[in-house]
Specification:
The chain is of the alpha+beta class and 182 residues long. It is built from two helices and twelve strands. The longest helix has 20 residues.
C-alpha cells in the first residue's frame, strides 16, 4: 500500500468514526490550552531536550477533548487540535464484542485488547498501550488539568504535554447514567 492509500483509508475511517459519533445520544466536550510541552530524546548516546516535536503540539496550542456514547459497547474519546481535527493527540474508539465495561460508583471503565479508558466523575484516563496515555483530573467544578505522555521507541524520544481544560458541554453524568441504566 502506498502512502496516499493509507492516508485516504485513515481519513475515511476517521470520518466514519466522527460521523457515527455525531448521531450518538450523549456527547460532550471541553476546550484545553497546552500549558507546557517537552520532548526528551537520546541522540548519539546523549540526553537532548526540545520544547516540541517539529510541526507538533506546543505550549499555547488550543485543543479540544470530545467524548461520545452511543449504543451499549460504543464509546469514543479524542483529544485533538481545535482548528485541525486531523492533528490528533490521542483517541480511542471502543466498539467490539470483546469490549469490557466495568461500572463503578464513580463512573465507568472501558477496556479492550490494547486500549483502556477510565471515565470517572473526577478523573479521565485514556491509555493506548504503546501509543500514549492521557490523564485528566478535575480540580474545580468544570475545570480539569492533565498530562499526556508518549514514548516513541524507534526514534528514542518521549513527548510530554500538560494542559488546562474547561467543560463547554458537560455530559459526563449523562454518559455514566446511561451506562448504569443499560
Amino acid at each position: 500500500m502506498n502512502r496516499n492509500t493509507i492516508a485516504r483509508n485513515f481519513y475515511f475511517l476517521f470520518g466514519m468514526v466522527f460521523f457515527s459519533c455525531a448521531v450518538f445520544a450523549q456527547d460532550g466536550y471541553m476546550t484545553c490550552k497546552v500549558t507546557g510541552s517537552a520532548v526528551i530524546a537520546s541522540e548519539d548516546g546523549r540526553f537532548v531536550q526540545y520544547s516540541s516535536v517539529t510541526g507538533g503540539t506546543k505550549s499555547g496550542d488550543d485543543l479540544i477533548l470530545t467524548y461520545s456514547l452511543g449504543a451499549i459497547g460504543k464509546f469514543f474519546i479524542s483529544l485533538h487540535h481545535i482548528n485541525d481535527p486531523k492533528k490528533i493527540i490521542i483517541s480511542a474508539y471502543l466498539s467490539d464484542s470483546s469490549l469490557e465495561i466495568e461500572r463503578t460508583s464513580k463512573g465507568t471503565i472501558f477496556s479492550m485488547q490494547n486500549t483502556s479508558v477510565s471515565f470517572l466523575n473526577d478523573y479521565i484516563r485514556v491509555d493506548n498501550k504503546g501509543f500514549g496515555a492521557l490523564y485528566l483530573v478535575r480540580y474545580y467544578k468544570n475545570d480539569w488539568h492533565g498530562v499526556y505522555a508518549r514514548f516513541d521507541g524507534p526514534t528514542l524520544y518521549t513527548q510530554n504535554l500538560t494542559f488546562n481544560c474547561r467543560h463547554q458541554k458537560d455530559q459526563m453524568d449523562a454518559v455514566n447514567s446511561k451506562i448504569s441504566s443499560q
